[in-house]
Design a protein that fits this description.
The chain is an alpha+beta fold and 122 residues long. The protein is built from 3 helices and 4 strands, in the order αβαββαβ.
Length: 122
Amino acid sequence: GHNSQPMRTLLLSLFLLATPLLQASGPDAPPAAYDALVVLQIDGFDQAALDRLAKVVGPETDLSLEYSCTWADVVVLQVRNTSFSERADVITYVRRYLEQAGIQRGIEVLHVHVEEQGMGKC
Protein backbone atom coordinates (compact mmCIF):
# COMPACT_ATOMS: atom_id res chain seq x y z
CA GLY A 1 0.00 0.00 0.00
CA HIS A 2 0.90 3.63 -0.30
CA ASN A 3 0.98 4.21 3.49
CA SER A 4 4.29 2.39 3.98
CA GLN A 5 6.26 5.35 2.65
CA PRO A 6 6.36 7.40 5.91
CA MET A 7 7.33 4.25 7.78
CA ARG A 8 10.19 3.61 5.39
CA THR A 9 11.37 7.21 5.75
CA LEU A 10 11.26 6.87 9.52
CA LEU A 11 13.24 3.63 9.48
CA LEU A 12 15.76 5.15 7.12
CA SER A 13 16.28 8.21 9.30
CA LEU A 14 16.61 5.99 12.39
CA PHE A 15 19.17 3.92 10.57
CA LEU A 16 21.11 7.02 9.57
CA LEU A 17 21.03 8.22 13.17
CA ALA A 18 22.19 4.87 14.48
CA THR A 19 24.98 4.36 11.98
CA PRO A 20 27.40 6.93 13.46
CA LEU A 21 26.89 5.30 16.86
CA LEU A 22 27.87 1.93 15.46
CA GLN A 23 31.00 3.39 13.94
CA ALA A 24 31.99 5.21 17.13
CA SER A 25 35.09 3.06 17.44
CA GLY A 26 36.81 5.19 14.81
CA PRO A 27 39.83 7.41 15.49
CA ASP A 28 37.87 10.17 17.23
CA ALA A 29 36.08 7.85 19.64
CA PRO A 30 37.14 8.10 23.28
CA PRO A 31 39.49 5.27 24.22
CA ALA A 32 37.69 2.30 25.68
CA ALA A 33 37.80 2.07 29.44
CA TYR A 34 38.64 -1.23 31.05
CA ASP A 35 38.23 -2.76 34.46
CA ALA A 36 40.85 -5.20 35.62
CA LEU A 37 41.09 -7.64 38.47
CA VAL A 38 44.57 -8.66 39.58
CA VAL A 39 45.16 -11.62 41.88
CA LEU A 40 48.60 -11.62 43.48
CA GLN A 41 50.43 -13.92 45.80
CA ILE A 42 53.10 -12.13 47.80
CA ASP A 43 55.70 -14.07 49.77
CA GLY A 44 55.62 -13.21 53.45
CA PHE A 45 52.61 -10.93 53.07
CA ASP A 46 51.66 -9.92 56.60
CA GLN A 47 49.35 -7.49 58.36
CA ALA A 48 51.98 -4.73 58.28
CA ALA A 49 52.37 -5.09 54.51
CA LEU A 50 48.59 -5.12 54.14
CA ASP A 51 48.30 -1.93 56.19
CA ARG A 52 50.93 -0.19 54.06
CA LEU A 53 49.25 -1.34 50.87
CA ALA A 54 45.83 -0.23 52.11
CA LYS A 55 47.30 3.20 52.91
CA VAL A 56 48.78 3.56 49.42
CA VAL A 57 45.69 2.26 47.63
CA GLY A 58 43.16 4.02 49.87
CA PRO A 59 43.20 7.51 48.28
CA GLU A 60 43.10 6.13 44.74
CA THR A 61 39.71 6.24 43.05
CA ASP A 62 40.65 3.85 40.26
CA LEU A 63 42.38 1.24 42.38
CA SER A 64 40.90 -0.69 45.24
CA LEU A 65 41.87 -3.54 47.50
CA GLU A 66 39.09 -6.02 46.87
CA TYR A 67 40.28 -8.91 48.99
CA SER A 68 43.27 -9.93 51.00
CA CYS A 69 44.21 -12.98 53.00
CA THR A 70 47.48 -12.71 54.89
CA TRP A 71 47.27 -16.39 55.78
CA ALA A 72 47.47 -17.35 52.10
CA ASP A 73 49.59 -14.34 51.08
CA VAL A 74 46.90 -13.44 48.57
CA VAL A 75 45.80 -9.97 47.51
CA VAL A 76 43.14 -9.06 44.96
CA LEU A 77 43.27 -5.56 43.51
CA GLN A 78 40.70 -4.01 41.24
CA VAL A 79 41.69 -1.38 38.69
CA ARG A 80 38.82 0.68 37.31
CA ASN A 81 38.50 3.09 34.38
CA THR A 82 41.88 2.20 33.00
CA SER A 83 42.97 2.50 29.40
CA PHE A 84 45.15 -0.60 29.79
CA SER A 85 43.77 -3.48 27.81
CA GLU A 86 46.96 -5.52 28.14
CA ARG A 87 47.75 -7.66 31.17
CA ALA A 88 51.36 -6.49 31.17
CA ASP A 89 50.31 -2.84 31.47
CA VAL A 90 47.95 -3.63 34.32
CA ILE A 91 50.67 -5.57 36.15
CA THR A 92 53.18 -2.72 35.73
CA TYR A 93 50.59 -0.27 37.07
CA VAL A 94 49.82 -2.42 40.11
CA ARG A 95 53.51 -3.09 40.83
CA ARG A 96 54.09 0.66 41.14
CA TYR A 97 51.68 0.76 44.07
CA LEU A 98 53.16 -2.36 45.61
CA GLU A 99 56.59 -0.72 45.49
CA GLN A 100 55.20 2.38 47.18
CA ALA A 101 54.00 0.06 49.92
CA GLY A 102 57.49 -1.44 50.17
CA ILE A 103 56.47 -4.72 48.55
CA GLN A 104 59.05 -5.43 45.88
CA ARG A 105 59.88 -9.08 45.76
CA GLY A 106 58.16 -12.40 46.05
CA ILE A 107 55.28 -11.10 43.96
CA GLU A 108 53.59 -13.71 41.85
CA VAL A 109 50.74 -12.73 39.57
CA LEU A 110 48.24 -15.56 39.74
CA HIS A 111 45.55 -14.08 37.55
CA VAL A 112 44.70 -10.94 35.63
CA HIS A 113 41.26 -10.40 34.21
CA VAL A 114 40.77 -7.38 31.96
CA GLU A 115 37.34 -6.55 30.66
CA GLU A 116 35.97 -3.64 28.68
CA GLN A 117 33.57 -1.54 30.71
CA GLY A 118 29.88 -1.81 30.15
CA MET A 119 29.95 -5.49 29.22
CA GLY A 120 27.06 -6.89 31.31
CA LYS A 121 28.69 -6.80 34.72
CA CYS A 122 27.26 -8.80 37.56
